[in-house]
Amino acid sequence: MPSDPTLGARRAGEADAAQLTELFTLAFYDDPTWSWAFPDPGRRIDQHRAWWGLYVRSAIPYGWVWMTEDGGAASQWIPPGRTELSEEDEALVEPFLRDQLGAHADDVLTLVERFDSNHPKEPPHYYLSLLGTHPDHRGHGKGMALLAANLALIDEEGMPAYLESSNRANDHRYESLGFTTVGEFESPHGEPTVACMWRDAS
To answer: pLDDT of 68-121, one tens digit each?
Structure first.
């Protein structure tokens, strides 16, 4: 896929799917929300590979999955009017969770529904589905630099953007780029919480 030298990043393609899935798997391993969803540390890596693989596979065809040239960080956007999962991959969610999580699957399905029900439907916007930094590249600002570069392109289109902060320690980073917390929701047992964040078109 073509690269943009001014961003130090490029749009990811099908050939990058495995690398992207691995990056998000490692990036979200200790995430408060997604480690709660997949609580067994011994199984979480494999479970995350399958889970994030669904989302990567569905998003790549939209042409709005980005990765830094060094593979250190990646962002996954869903363009206005598109769905986060294809119908095919959406149908795999519940069977996968029930197979992997047993009774805990009910709580995780409730959490997934809360992501959907709290997601604003209007006005049209870009949705940051995933933003992750490989553990070997943390501490250098690569993820936020990639996000800032993406937002510059979205601003050129005059579009707003939306994300969920599944790790509240990151809220201030998103706020520094113009996002405002417009709501929050809890996991079925109250913790952790997820912030809903909106950024108006600039």
So the answer is: 999 999 999 999 999 999 999 999 999 999 999 999 999 999 999 999 999 999
Supply the pTM of this predicted model.
Answer: 0.93
Strand order in the sheet with 73-78: 3-4, 9-11, 65-68, 73-78, 126-133, 161-165, 193-199, 180-186
Measured distance CA(87)–CA(110) in Å, rounded: 19
For the chain, the residue count is 202
Residue 168 tokens, joined = 């509240």
Look-up of token digits 């996002």: 179
pLDDT, one tens digit per residue, over 15-58 is 999 999 999 999 999 999 999 999 999 999 999 999 999 999 99
Q: Where in the sequence is the domain holding 64, given as residue range(s)?
A: 3-199
Number of domains in the chain: 1
Write the CATH number for 103.
3.40.630.30
Q: In terms of C-beta density within 10 A (0-12 exposed, 13-18 middle, 19 or more buried), how is residue 163 classed?
A: buried
